[in-house]
Amino acid sequence: MFFQNLSIESILANLIALGIGxxxxxxxxxxxxxxNGDPVPAQQGRLTLNPLVHINWIGWLMFxxxxxxxxxxxxxxxxxxxxxxxxxxxxxxxxxxSNLLVAIVFAIPLRFIDPNDVIRIAFAQQIAGVGxxxxxxxxxxxxxxxxLFLFNLIPLFPLDGWHMVLSLLPPxxxxxWQRHQQTTYYLFFGLILLSFVAPQFNILGYLISxxxxxxxxxxxxx
Length: 222
Fold this sequence. Notes:
Structural class: mainly alpha
Number of domains: 1
Number of strands: 0
């Protein structure tokens, strides 16, 4: 629904929504790593909300049009932190949690708009005028930040969820988990490829879509 019959307005709204989500996601990683003693984010000038510092241009455009793309990266490392295990966990978790927070904040003004208008604009994409476009941008920002929140919790390398599991496991299990890093990497990209060549077997979509729409409707109040 969100990537069908894309118009100029919907692509522009997607780019804005993803730009906000990606920027705050990567900033959160870098800022929490900085708080935990990692000097590299400051050295590389990444303690900023300037999207030009964080953006992956090709991935940003791809995500806005087809629903998948590498949006950015953060040069954080547990070995540079005061507490490698818990500091790294906090820095990694900060990314997806920041997306959830963005979704909540951008959903608040939509609660003060007629639900029928929000449904018409957000779901049917009936955009007539600047006011409707601003509502659509708000709705897309909520939706895409929910997607980024849930997507990054998947425990497959190189997603945040994989690193979070690694930090939470005791040493012996963490070692085993790390040994299978490459396997989960292949599995991740295999699932992405499957979603394009055989959409009826889009496992990633099934894992994310239902909780995403449930949380979306909850935040928007319908």
